Amino acid sequence: MPRLPLVSRLPLALSLLTLALLAPTAAAQNERPAPVKTSTQTCGAYTLKLSENGFGDPEDRVSLVRGGTTYATVSDIAVSVDWCRDVTGDGVPEVLLAGFSGGAHCCFTHTLYSLSTPPRKLLSVFSAHSETITPRQLDGKGPLELLVSDWRFAYAYGLSFAESVPLLNVYAYVGGQYVDRSRAFPGTLRGFLTRQVTNQTGGGEVLADYATLLAIGKSGEAQAFVQGLPARFRAWLTNYGPDIRHAMNDYGLSDWPLRAGAPFSAARMGLGGSFSAPNQREYLGMVGGGTQATLRLYRAQGAQVVAGPALMTVPARQPDPYYLDTAWAPVATVRRATGRDDLLVRDERSGGMRYVAYRVSPGRLTELQDDPLAVTARMLGDLSTLSKHVGASFTQTTPPRTAAQRAEVQRRIDVAAARAQPWLNLAANADIPARALGSLTFSGLDLTVDRPDQARVVAPISLGLNDARTNSEDIEGERYTLTVNLVRSARGWAVKDWTLDERGGELYEEE
User: Fold this and answer.
1) Beta strand 437-442 pairing with 446-450
2) Are 432 and 452 in contact, with CB atoms under 8 Å apart?
């Protein structure tokens, strides 16, 4: 079945918008506009009814209808039927429905239904910048696999969108639904690598190649790939390599909660790692449900994925099916000398910014106390809280803050500065005035030394200072390597000192 193009409706939408502006105000207020176009198609035993309103209000809709009953509906600024075909091989066709939010090349969502009686949802995926999903037979047998673009690196690390290249996700039919099984198809992923990198190769291609090698478990080959690159790409990936490795943490694993029984409608996020034992591939996932989110450890048992008991339950919002908003969230895993991964969590439930380190076991989450990672987490939390309050003081409010409100902002800065100053005093090569620290962010960190009596934490960070020209809470930061040296004495673990060193290697250096 041919795909109904989204872009072909733009001229019609603009014409209708012009007519609407000329229509009498009273009519616009009292009459609900009829859909611009209503059409039907047939797929299997079902009718696909499309109501298209040309990017207007109400939203477009596509519904699965049979015998006068509507079984499912997808609505968005624009909708389409991508294809109707049997991809599972059971003789019953599937239909792929697309929604488009109307932004600049973003965002698309796709929902796949088996047109059984009644229809069954087999896949619901946020496709970002990709218009469709491609079925393909990859393993030579059984149901077709689905090729989906993964846009996690769009605009990343100085790339424009035009340069950005998606990674490939492979969805396979497992247990009656399509789930992300990308890591099970290393040959397919490798087939998308750039054949030869030159100075004329796009940065997005180079980044995608590096990330793909990480995805298929070839970390050594990935590092050799970086060393063999032209100088500007080599410096760029050396600069952002830790960030990229962190960003790839959950690749191919984020569907594990679905495979363990979580519903499609539940938003989820999480991190991959070896939490319970070295060399174990596990997924620590938060799954939304109502007004809460629950953290569990998901583990493979044969071909199945099983969920462990609840490790933490916190308040959460789910504004849409693909986004989970919670003030307590896993942000990074940290590999320890034992080969296991510990967990770093951002906790903003009290209004400040805390980072807390945990040890994870299948049935328990244990907060680390006298531990080098825990001490570093406290330092990062206090500095981040200070930067949050300092940055917020430059927010332009309407109406302007009252004297009492300005005094409260200053009080919060004073409290945060008092907590942060002891850490700032330990800087070996930087002099950062507490009230100038306007932004501090990081995506991951590494324990490069993890011994019983000494430790070293290394993290790429972005740090920004406000000055007399600052007039917004968006304080741009510069990239540094933060190195924290810790020692253990009779009183426990403590920071000995820390340093900041500039990180070079931007893809496009500012002149």
Assistant:
1) unpaired
2) no
